[in-house]
Amino acid sequence: MPAALLFSAVLLLLLAPAVWPSPVTLPLERAFPTNHGVELSQLKAWDSVRHRRLLQQTTTTYVVDFPVRGTFDPSQVGLYYTKVRLGSPPREFHVQIDTGSDVLWVSCGSCNGCPETSGLQIQLNYFDPGSSSTSSLISCLDQRCRSGEESSDTSCSTQSNQCTYTFQYGDGSGTSGYYVSDLMHFASIFEGSVTANSSTPIVFGCSNLQTGELTKSDRAIDGIFGFGQQEMSVISQLSSQGIAPRVFSHCLKGDNSGGGILVLGDIVEPNIIYSPLVPSQPHYNLNLQSISVNGQPLPIDPTVFATSSNRGTIIDSGTTLAYLAEEAYNPFVNAIVAAVPPSVRTVLSKGSPCFLISSSVSDTFPQVSLNFAGGASLVLRPQDYLIQQNPIVDGAVWCIGFQKIPGEGITILGDLVLKDKIFIYDLAHQRIGWTNYDCSLSVNVTASTGGGRSEFVNAGELSGSTSLQDGPHKLIHIGVMAFFLYLLVL
């Protein structure tokens, strides 16, 4: 039979209604006879098993990809940001990648203090809930508002019955607004090369007031994308819906071009080393145990790094530099100064030690190791703790990028340290992993933290790869055609 006729016959068989020679009678029996009493808890247990089975059959977890722009260099951008699309029709917003906070928020109309232009050469946008056909406000009675109220940032206005928030950041800036629910559109990858633009409802913040650094135009963006692990974070929301895994990864390029990779998924790389997260903390706290310079541990009391209300070590992509408590900062700087050759001239610039060098920075400065619990060491090149200043004749000026926090303080590892490395935030197993990597290269990512199939992801290549309208239909057409081709082969 010719292939075309075979295809037509198969299609007719699939589409035609089933014809039975006679009515079919199937006996129905009660699982629980009416003459026997059954405990309510037993019925609920049976239903629970069935619901879990249904979820296992219908839920597909994707790798979700976000584009990355920006650099760590304070003289250029001093932050990394990505793009999100919200609402119906979708609007695009540039938001800072921030692992030090939990909530995604964007500037909204009638905002007080929101900048109107940006020195980053990006178009600033304002979200308008009234212009989105899928938007709805979060009321005080909404369970999602009650989840947010577990933190001190979320509150409820009894007059307007609106769920509101107020965030204060470490640099003194702040924002406040109200929560809305609307569609987030994102690029995802599943089953190898098949890509789709997907969407799902999420809760995010609508900012109507900004203060401090957020009001300035030089580095203005549309909002902040919090990647924390609390319930209101996007990673937690997508994970609870079964859309994305409870793990995300980034690789931030450290050169002048910036950019990098940001995925909801687990980057597969053989050299990843892990350290456990300190439990029951609002941030990504790790147990830093010691600092070594050229392999020699520094004379720092380990209690300086112990996690408490005013101490500890935090991984924070929303911080540009890195910060050490005074008891750790002074031994650290002294060891760096002692390790450089005598020919290197040392000067102070705005309170930070700087060095005038005429040779390679890698050959001049020592290697530094941050030693964490679990035997995991984060090895820093000189470029990971120094910042290059404006060049001079016959040389270069490099300054210590770590800053001192007077008295007791929290150690914060920002983009200066995080760049040029893969970082994996494995929330499912409560650990963070890392390894050195060229972030201009592609990576393999899996949606399962326990291994399994991995997807090939280039830096931001999924963004905008398929139109929002055609994405789901293209997936269906591909699946149907693949099925028919399979039948033709048989």
TrEMBL record:
Residues 80-435 form the Peptidase A1 domain. The keyword Signal applies. The active site is at D98, D316. Residues 1-21 form the signal peptide. GO terms for cellular component: membrane. SUPFAM superfamilies: Acid proteases. GO terms for molecular function: aspartic-type endopeptidase activity. The keyword Transcription does not apply. InterPro entries: Aspartic_peptidase_A1 (IPR001461), Pepsin-like_plant (IPR034161), PEPTIDASE_A1 (IPR033121), Peptidase_aspartic_dom_sf (IPR021109), TAXi_C (IPR032799), TAXi_N (IPR032861). GO terms for biological process: proteolysis. It is found in: Membrane. Gene3D superfamilies: Acid Proteases. Keywords: Aspartyl protease, Glycoprotein, Hydrolase, Membrane, Protease, Signal, Transmembrane, Transmembrane helix. Belongs to the peptidase A1 family. This is Peptidase A1 domain-containing protein. It comes from Arachis hypogaea.
